[in-house]
Amino acid sequence: MSALKRFSRTEAPAAVVLIRIAVGLVFLTEGVQKFLYPDELGVGRFIKIGIPAPEVMGPFVGAVEIICGGLVILGLVTRLAAIPLIINISTAIVSTKIPMLLGHGFWGFTVAKLPRYGFLSTMHEARTDFSMLLGLLFLLVVGAGAWSVDGRFGSRASAKEAERNTTK
């Protein structure tokens, strides 16, 4: 079995579609907004935060969120699509939430102007980020589930492999 087939194979139940839709839609819509509202959510925001090469990284991150978010929704190479999104959301946590927790800049990233800083304020601001990170880790571990493109290809590949094994 090829590496891609093994990577997209899933034994997860159909209900995983709920996690895929929630996670994929958040990333897809956030990516679209980076292009629709570049000053607030794309390049302009990346400049304020302190992301290097914001003119390049804003559109790049937006494109990754759109493409990988769409792949997650479809359940197509879900585990593979989850990896860049895990890197994306981890970078968002380090660049925005850690400065909030500390109440000052961190690794060259600037702190947002908030009425309060510290653990509870950070948890309030980071609830979606942490939910997305955990959802992506879940998808990386279990795969796309039965109601997915991966599940359809995986079941066909398993059936063909079983057929080959019985005819030997």
* Total strand segments: 0
Largest sheet: none
Helix proportion of residues, in percent?
over 70%
- Number of domain modules: 1
The DSSP helix count reads 8
Strand content: under 5%
Shape: elongated
Distance between the termini: 17 Å
Main structural class: mainly alpha
Cα gyration radius (Å)? 19 Å
List segments where confidence is low: pLDDT < 50 over at least 5 consecutive residues. none
Spell the H/E element sequence.
Answer: HHHHHHHH
The overall pLDDT average reads 87
Commentary on this structure:
The chain has 168 residues and is mainly α. The chain has one domain (15-167). Helices cover 76% and strands 0% of the residues. The chain is built from eight helices and no strands. The chain has helices spanning 3-8, 16-36, 38-41, 43-49, 54-74, 78-102, 119-142, 149-167. The longest helix has 25 residues, at 78-102. The chain is elongated. The two termini are 17 Å apart. The model has no long low-confidence stretch (mean pLDDT 87).
What keyword list fits this structure?
single chain; 168 residues; mainly alpha
List the helices and strands and how they pair.
Blueprint: H1 3-8, H2 16-36, H3 38-41, H4 43-49, H5 54-74, H6 78-102, H7 119-142, H8 149-167
Helix pairs in contact: 2-5, 2-7, 4-5, 5-6, 6-7
